[in-house]
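Quick one, probably user error.
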């Protein structure tokens, strides 16, 4: 009886060792790799979100200062901001909004205002483009079965593109 029990214990130890080597260690390594990548994408997305928000604030402050617009119009600025980012500077929507907010604004100054914010607009587009890439990469990471099982945080990164032209970014995420 003692000999049979000894063989069973040895076989169990061999099976446990085999399973640990073939399943356990790769699962632990995979979990570390996938969780690290998930965390990196979340951190990068948060950094870009802050840059996008600060760019919005900087553009608002510049327009407010140069056009003499009261702080009370900030909420309505949210409605024209996507169009400002999305379209060419020749669009009349922004000029009309400025004139609605400040009837004393000289339309001749409009090109100067738009020139002042052009760099911020370009920065916004570049960072939003990277944000959309991060979202696609994060979605692809979670779409794979094994990584999704091993990643602790199952929630997707949430971000709604500011710009209204989804064709520019591809799939609406």
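Nope, works fine. Designed sequence:
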């Amino acid at each position: 009886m003692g000999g049979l029990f000894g063989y069973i214990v040895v076989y169990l130890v061999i099976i446990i060792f085999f399973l640990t080597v073939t399943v356990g260690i790769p699962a632990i390594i995979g979990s570390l790799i996938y969780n690290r990548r998930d965390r990196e994408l979340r951190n990068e997305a948060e950094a870009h979100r802050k840059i996008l928000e600060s760019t919005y604030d900087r553009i608002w402050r510049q327009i407010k200062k140069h056009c003499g617009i009261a702080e009370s119009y900030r909420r309505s600025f949210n409605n024209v901001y996507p169009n400002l980012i999305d379209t060419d500077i020749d669009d009349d929507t922004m000029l009309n909004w400025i004139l609605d907010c400040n009837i004393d604004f000289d339309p001749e100054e409009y090109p100067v205002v738009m020139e002042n914010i052009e760099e911020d607009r370009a920065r916004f587009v570049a960072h939003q483009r990277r944000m959309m890439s991060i979202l696609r990469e994060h979605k692809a990471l979670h779409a794979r079965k094994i990584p999704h099982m091993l990643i602790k945080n199952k929630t997707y990164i949430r971000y709604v593109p500011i710009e209204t032209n989804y064709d520019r970014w591809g799939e609406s995420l």
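The first helix runs from residue 2 to 67.
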